[in-house]
Amino acid sequence: MVICNRRLRGLEALITRGPLKENEFHSIFSGVTCRNPGAAKKIFDKYLLEINKELSYVNFELRACRDQYDGKVCYGVVNNVADEQSKLGTIYSVPQIAFFKGIHYLDLEVLVYA
């Protein structure tokens, strides 16, 4: 599995910062693609679809959810496996941990060789 740099940056931001408000996620998208998500809706949707394809390998998914209190949209990475460990919310599966480590090591390689 190969993750391109622009999708990697958006994914890293979500994993390290946790759920992001819509405007924060849009600014990350704009930063990595140099496009406005409002003007390039198809490109933004394709960007999300590509990230979800890569996340499906480790049973994660990028979702947009509306906050029930303020009505604002947030983006976050969620686990879509319905097992006992994932219900606890504290224990990751072995493939999930390997995925996070892979992203971390790939980021270090990009920084070292950039």
Automatic annotation (TrEMBL):
<dbReference type="InterPro" id="IPR011513">
    <property type="entry name" value="Nse1"/>
</dbReference>
<keyword id="KW-0479">Metal-binding</keyword>
<dbReference type="GO" id="GO:0005634">
    <property type="term" value="C:nucleus"/>
</dbReference>
<dbReference type="GO" id="GO:0008270">
    <property type="term" value="F:zinc ion binding"/>
</dbReference>
<comment type="subunit">
    <text>Component of the Smc5-Smc6 complex.</text>
</comment>
<keyword id="KW-0833">Ubl conjugation pathway</keyword>
<keyword id="KW-0863">Zinc-finger</keyword>
<dbReference type="GO" id="GO:0030915">
    <property type="term" value="C:Smc5-Smc6 complex"/>
</dbReference>
<keyword id="KW-0539">Nucleus</keyword>
<dbReference type="Pfam" id="PF07574">
    <property type="entry name" value="SMC_Nse1"/>
</dbReference>
<protein>
    <recommendedName>
        <fullName>Non-structural maintenance of chromosomes element 1 homolog</fullName>
        <ecNumber>2.3.2.27</ecNumber>
    </recommendedName>
</protein>
<keyword id="KW-0233">DNA recombination</keyword>
<keyword id="KW-0234">DNA repair</keyword>
<dbReference type="GO" id="GO:0000724">
    <property type="term" value="P:double-strand break repair via homologous recombination"/>
</dbReference>
<comment type="similarity">
    <text>Belongs to the NSE1 family.</text>
</comment>
<keyword id="KW-0862">Zinc</keyword>
<keyword id="KW-0227">DNA damage</keyword>
<dbReference type="GO" id="GO:0061630">
    <property type="term" value="F:ubiquitin protein ligase activity"/>
</dbReference>
<keyword id="KW-0808">Transferase</keyword>
